[in-house]
């Protein structure tokens, strides 16, 4: 395919569903840069970290739910090309909300297809996933000839729903548009690898938070396991090239566009062990990956236990107080089983070649996270929290609570054994409390100079943890 850089973009109107997301916002900005007449971001959220820059660049941000047909029609009316990126259930607690996953990923996709046909939109690019053909089996340099895995074989609702949605999109390729005789809807699907880049908001924040808290206890699988990653700019390029591959202006009469009805694997082209890939990022933030490794079989047992616990907690999955699960079965497969694919079909048909190499992509990601770390409240691992909270609570219980409860009697016995008397136990507790108050006050005073936005947070964290927290603030002050 030989087209100009902005073929099919200049002077055209585009809609990006999920346009306030990480990839969606980058795509909107690139379409604006390439001269699109109008770009609409259609998203359930009112705002996101990218809202301000999108509006500043002239992107029309439309709030709506892709699972509501009237919202979809309102957003797509008058568009000439749609990028369907909106999805739900990719990771964490979202993966367990089966009903919402199907509502967004399947029903929402049906609404987008119907709106394209009803409103005379000729191009639809669908952002799919590797998981339509991967369900935990080993795949080396796979290509688009691989069959969809059976629907019942998917280990999570996200992969199953995306598989159904992709097949719906591709089966509707070349369907005649309503009230537009002679023209058709042309569709294609992009299957990206794990996405990374500055501002990625699904996988990396969760991984980094777990590393900071000391909750990444082991690697999964052996060091020979490899999988694909794709930098956000490379994925955006692939999406735009796919939209160009759906143009019918330069095709012979009666011949379909080259990308019509096709699916393409998109990656950086450098399969790597995920733990090795993430190590430079975590090391730059002063976090370490563990050396012990857990087999896939044992990790799956742990994943199923986590899944069972969170299934019981289903009514509270949307509550902020409920943390993300430690790991789920499909996530075990993603990091513990070799699966990587070739982008040769995308290169041959739509001209995709990664513009950003992994080293450059990771360098920019590291720079972003180092800057972000300086702006947020840093702190110790969860073990320091447990030590301080349990320690001070136990000291208070042994010193002041009546021993009518067996646990208080046990605590008091331990305190008497360590400190010799009740009055000494009480004195130690009061001195420890005073020390925490002094350390917290000093942390607030120091934070007002070096991190004023988080001064209150530094006070309460240091009040709870004492020097375990204060040392992180002192390090930031030295820097």
Q: What does this protein look like?
A:
The protein has helices at 22-33, 51-56, 69-76, 98-119, 157-171, 204-212, 232-244, 274-284, 296-312, 329-336, 344-350, 358-375, 382-400, 406-419, 422-450, 455-465, 467-478; strands at 13-17, 38-43, 60-63, 81-84, 123-127, 139-142, 175-176, 184-192, 194-196, 219-220, 229-231, 263-266, 293-294, 339-341. It folds into two domains: 13-375, Rossmann fold (3-Layer(aba) Sandwich); 382-478, no CATH class. The longest helix is centred in the C-terminal third of the chain and has 29 residues, at 422-450. It starts with 12 loop residues before the first strand and ends with a helix. 48% of the residues lie in helices and 12% in strands. The model has no long low-confidence stretch (mean pLDDT 93). The chain has 17 helices and 14 strands. Strands 1, 2, 3, 4, 5, 7, 8 and 12 form an eight-stranded mixed sheet that branches. A two-stranded parallel ribbon has the order 6-14. It is of the alpha/beta class and 479 residues long. Helix 2 (51-56) links the parallel strand 2 and strand 3. Residues 15-292 form the 3-beta hydroxysteroid dehydrogenase/isomerase domain. Keywords: Membrane, NAD, Oxidoreductase, Transmembrane, Transmembrane helix. One of its GO terms (molecular function) is oxidoreductase activity, acting on the CH-OH group of donors, NAD or NADP as acceptor. InterPro entries: 3Beta_OHSteriod_DH/Estase, Lipid_A_modif_metabolic_enz, NAD(P)-bd_dom_sf, TMEM254. This is 3-beta hydroxysteroid dehydrogenase/isomerase domain-containing protein.
